[in-house]
């Protein structure tokens, strides 16, 4: 066969295989046997091997895998992947409906309901109709690039055809392992004498992050798509976007329903409460969305969740088993978590041996006693927790439970801070789990990102006496590391390179990595932007700290307490000497002008000439600050059409100046 003949045959086979894939996933039928399908795939692969220049990224043979990925690159999501608020009752759904009604000012609206599949969220980007990137949700802002593995999932189109396909768009969905495939995998593992897999959700998650995509292909993952994003999309409702995905050949679960009102939503939930168990995929609830995209935009978002959507969770499965003992775990902040050791019991497809007891208050509330028979549930059907006691089976000789008074690791007397339920070990400088936990937090990908250093290595270095705090990382030597079990020349060099590279991490990541109580990633960024240098932050007064947008009294007191301690001052000094970044990069704050003079703005509503993202960029580029919520510290509310009445009411009550899009444009021209 010559090159011209091969081109024609490759095109024919590709189109035929794509057609059979479409029939199988979109029409639930198959005109060929699995053997015939596999034979066509083998013919195509053979031709592509003979004529490698004819092989394309969207070829069906990409689904076989074979790519080896040692490190998954980080992907910044163009649109944040937010989580949904959860509800567990019809009354809470009706409360959600009242908030929607109020937010829309009485305008008519409808809902769109979909089953919530228990899998792994995925983002797929298509350019010119071809899949170019697949990413995990990660922290919602950034995830891992898993494109090679996603290409092996047969229900994810590698190329789409049809009318009015945007130049670039994003599709989101849920990757899952079908229950039948999970059962087959466990049968194979059991026959081979290997440990069985825990559950389909964890298996899907672990499979997506495997380094060898051929193994991913063999596990036959599936994927339902449920969201379409992109600037060129012309659809006006979520329902229309779902139909558009179906027309383009995406695998959409046919379990959705448009509902006229909240009572129809509740009826849909009741219908699927038991019917969902007939599906070949685990589900744990229902997702309810306002159907109109304009109304979604009008309702907007909280810091974590959209106001136009909510997740209804079905009641978790429960089991009864014996409480054999209570042990205690010490977290990196010193928080003590009691854990129940249970008589093993099967629950929601997995064997449960341990479960969270949360804190002393919860143990007292339930009057738990070692030896009791207790009810165990999976919170969100993932994390086991003890929910109650079967008093009819209590032995009268069981003694009331006594919570420990001293740290189980270092013996220090525990404390309880005002307003908090947890006990804490205050010995942050000498309690082993806290020291190791703080170092693990410091090296985390979201902080200093020292990926060549892991939990086990930290443990070994701590036990050798080389690590007592994060500053000790920068004093480690080749001779100290090479003596560790499992380390050879290359791994030592990689570790030292990783530590050296972390010195270039931005100041805000260092600040987050220090593990100061209540200073999460977002708070660290706001503090870094405001104070710009560690010295300014360390010298800030309480009043200066609470002037920072969204920094409250609790965070301010925590910062002052941290920087007052001599040992922390010494730690910062050592990190400075080691060469870590102690100030923000000035380029981050280069602006076109200072017309807005550091004033804070909340943006709400729909605008004629600019999108919300454009307005945010314009504010930042002209020396202003974008704030997520209305408070007394706010300077301006930039209000568009269909702005929620609650925001308007709060702004008026606090005396916040409300400006229009035209007012804002005038500010940029003439200043404030």
TrEMBL record:
BRCT domain boundaries: 591-672
EC number: 6.5.1.2
Gene Ontology BP annotations: DNA repair; DNA replication
Pfam families per record: BRCT, DNA_ligase_aden, DNA_ligase_ZBD, HHH_2, OB_DNA_ligase
Active site: 116 (n6-amp-lysine intermediate)
Reactions the enzyme catalyzes: NAD(+) + (deoxyribonucleotide)n-3'-hydroxyl + 5'-phospho-(deoxyribonucleotide)m = (deoxyribonucleotide)n+m + AMP + beta-nicotinamide D-nucleotide
Coiled coil: 3-57
Protein residues bound to NAD(+): 34-38, 83-84, 114, 137, 174, 289, 313
InterPro entries the UniProt entry points to: BRCT_dom, BRCT_dom_sf, DisA/LigA_HHH, DNA_ligase, DNA_ligase_AS, DNA_ligase_CS, DNAligase_adenylation, DNAligase_N
Binding sites annotated in the UniProt record for Zn(2+): 407, 410, 425, 431
Keyword Zinc: yes
SMART domains: BRCT (SM00292), HhH1 (SM00278), LIGANc (SM00532)
Class of this enzyme: ligase
Gene Ontology MF, one: DNA ligase (NAD+) activity
GO cellular component assignments: cytosol
PANTHER family for this protein: CHROMOSOME TRANSMISSION FIDELITY FACTOR 18, DNA LIGASE
Protein task: DNA ligase that catalyzes the formation of phosphodiester linkages between 5'-phosphoryl and 3'-hydroxyl groups in double-stranded DNA using NAD as a coenzyme and as the energy source for the reaction. It is essential for DNA replication and repair of damaged DNA.
HAMAP family: DNA_ligase_A (MF_01588)
NCBIfam families found in the cross-reference section: dnlj, PRK07956.1
Name of the featured protein: DNA ligase
Species of the source: Reichenbachiella agariperforans
Gene that specifies this protein: ligA
């Amino acid at each position: 066969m010559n090159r011209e003949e091969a081109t024609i045959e490759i095109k024919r086979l590709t189109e035929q295989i794509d057609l059979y894939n479409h029939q199988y996933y979109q029409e639930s039928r198959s005109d060929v046997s699995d053997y015939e399908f596999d034979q066509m795939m083998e013919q195509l692969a053979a031709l592509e091997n003979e004529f490698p220049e004819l092989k394309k990224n969207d070829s069906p043979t990409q689904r076989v895998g074979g790519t080896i990925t040692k490190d998954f690159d980080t992907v910044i999501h163009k649109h944040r992947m937010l989580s949904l608020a959860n509800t567990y009752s019809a009354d809470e759904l009706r409360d959600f409906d009242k908030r929607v009604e109020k937010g829309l000012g009485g305008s008519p609206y409808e809902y769109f309901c979909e089953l919530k599949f228990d899998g792994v969220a995925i983002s797929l980007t298509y350019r010119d109709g071809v899949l170019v990137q697949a990413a995990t949700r990660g922290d919602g802002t950034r995830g891992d690039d898993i494109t090679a593995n996603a290409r092996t999932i047969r229900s994810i189109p590698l190329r789409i055809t049809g009318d009015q396909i945007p130049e670039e768009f994003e599709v989101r969905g849920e990757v899952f392992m079908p229950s039948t495939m999970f059962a087959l995998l466990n049968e194979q593992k059991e026959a081979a004498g290997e440990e069985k897999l825990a559950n389909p959700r964890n298996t899907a998650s672990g499979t997506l992050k495997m380094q060898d995509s051929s193994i991913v292909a063999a596990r036959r993952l599936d994927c339902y798509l449920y969201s379409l994003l992109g600037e060129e999309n012309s659809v006006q409702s979520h329902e229309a976007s779902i139909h558009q995905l179906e027309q383009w050949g995406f695998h959409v679960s046919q379990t959705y329903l448009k509902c006229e009102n909240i009572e129809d939503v509740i009826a849909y939930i009741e219908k699927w409460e038991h019917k969902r168990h007939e599906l070949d995929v685990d589900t744990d609830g229902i997702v309810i969305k306002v159907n109109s995209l304009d109304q979604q935009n009008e309702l907007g978002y909280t810091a974590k969740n959209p106001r136009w959507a909510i997740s209804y969770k079905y009641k978790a499965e429960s089991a009864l088993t014996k409480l054999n003992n209570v042990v205690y775990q010490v977290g990196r902040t010193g928080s003590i978590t009691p854990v129940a050791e249970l008589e093993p019991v099967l629950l929601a497809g997995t064997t449960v041996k341990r479960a969270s007891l949360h804190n002393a208050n919860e143990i007292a509330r339930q009057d738990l006693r070692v030896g009791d028979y207790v009810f165990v549930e999976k919170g969100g059907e993932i994390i086991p927790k003890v929910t109650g006691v079967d008093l009819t089976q209590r032995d009268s000789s069981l003694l009331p439970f006594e919570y420990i008074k001293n740290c189980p690791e270092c013996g220090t007397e525990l404390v309880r801070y005002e307003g908090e339920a947890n006990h804490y070990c205050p010995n942050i400088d000498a309690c082993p789990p806290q020291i190791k936990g703080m170092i693990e937090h410091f090296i985390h990908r979201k902080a200093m990102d020292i990926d060549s250093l892991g939990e086990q290595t930290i443990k070994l270095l701590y036990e050798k006496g080389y690590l007592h705090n994060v500053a000790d990382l920068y004093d480690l030597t080749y001779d100290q590391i090479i003596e560790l079990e499992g380390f050879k020349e290359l791994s030592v060099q990689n570790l030292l390179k990783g530590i050296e590279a972390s010195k270039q991490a931005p100041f805000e990541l260092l600040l987050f990595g220090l593990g100061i109580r209540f200073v999460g990633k977002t708070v660290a960024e706001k503090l870094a932007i405001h104070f710009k240098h560690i010295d300014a932050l360390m010298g800030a007064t309480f009043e200066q700290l609470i002037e920072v947008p969204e920094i409250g009294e609790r965070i301010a007191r925590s910062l002052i307490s941290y920087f007052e301690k001599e040992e922390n001052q010494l730690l910062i000094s050592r990190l400075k000497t080691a060469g870590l970044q102690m100030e923000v990069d000035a380029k981050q704050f280069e602006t076109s002008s200072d017309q807005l003079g550091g004033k804070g703005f909340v943006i709400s509503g729909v605008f004629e000439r600019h999108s919300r993202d454009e307005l945010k960029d314009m504010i930042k580029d002209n020396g202003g600050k974008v704030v997520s919520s209305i408070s007394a510290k706010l300077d301006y509310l930039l209000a568009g059409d269909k702005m929620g009445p609650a925001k308007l009411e709060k702004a008026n009550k606090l005396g916040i100046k409300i400006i229009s899009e035209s007012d804002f444009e005038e500010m940029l021209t003439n200043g404030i």
